[in-house]
Amino acid sequence: MPFDVTRFEPRRIALFSGNYNYVMDGPVRALNKLVAYLEARGVEVLVFAPTAKQAAFEHAGKLVSVPSVPLPGRGEYRLALGMPKSVRKTLEAFNPDLVHLAAPDWLGHAALTWAEGNNVPAVASFHTRFDTYPRYYHMAWLEKHVTAFMRRFYHRCQQIYVPSPCMAEVLAGQDMAPNIGIWSRGVDQTLFHPDQRSLAWRRDNGIKDDDVTIAFVGRLVLEKGLGVFADTIDLLKKRGLPVKALIVGDGPERDRFEARLPDAVFAGYLNGQDLAQAYASADVFFNASVTETFGNVTLEAMACGLPLVCADATGSRSLVDHGNNGFLARAVTAEAFADALETIVQDKTLRSTMATNSLTKSAAYSWGAVLGRLYDQYRDVLAGYQAGPEQKKRKSGNVPSVTAAE
Which residues, in sequence order, are CB contacts of 294 under 8 Å at separation 6+? Predict the structure, then answer.
């Protein structure tokens, strides 16, 4: 007799993350949206994560600080030092009926071991392709070992959630987890909208009315493809195209990036309406990164009505319809990106059509629908876990093919 999954409502969820409020990025934004949504549904959530002396923003929910140290070479991020006895006591007193892991770090491993020892189902969300990072730091040989490390971690979880079907296919091909579900991302369409465009803002930032502004939005770190972005802008200028680079974001590579692109506009870290205005005041969005599992910034650009040029990678394939709302470059090279951008820059009609198509597609991505589907998957996990060992881990043969569409 099939289980009625509606009987298995999550009541208390413990969420473990390597970052929750000290640096704002795409995964952190999604996790805070999730916690606020769960609390609105009456679910108690306790978040365990490292903290810094000064938070980047006011977080959602209750946060328990865990001991941590700055991450070597990337001091803005922190590495949790496992789960000490005091934190473990807090977790045990909370008595969660579900554990959600947002990173395969020491804290995540400790929480997963605790869940296994206390008969509590553990799920995980896959936010970043950490296995691709070594190639940006001259350690490509390490990539296969990181992949194997992650595989061992995720195979111990009841289910992992990825933000797109194409990411699910990649991980299934790597045998990354036995049960893969979809947790897509949403966008605030009342905030991110083409009406935020401002000629005055452009002029105040030294952008001419006839400049075709190519925007980058994100953390200024090597793995975002900063090198190929700069090379592409140089190549477009050598071709005599009237382009202006707009860089929105901050990070440890900012000084070197500014020196590399002295004519670009560096707007720094922006949030809220300031961020939406910057997006909408650009003309094309360019994302050369291959490390994301979902292009949050790409989706925000779409909602602001921008045509897209992105790497043909997991973070963009579900968002960019090649030739419709932008182009996917199969080769991650300046020449390939420049060819795609040149086509859009030179054809104003095409640029307008792609902008309209981006806006239309973005309308399908609603936070309420996205988080509601994740909640349903939580209930499915709880029902399967209580059904018995033979049903606790279903194989990934039925990888969901849903997106964030309503």
Answer: 26, 163, 164, 167, 184, 185, 314, 315, 318
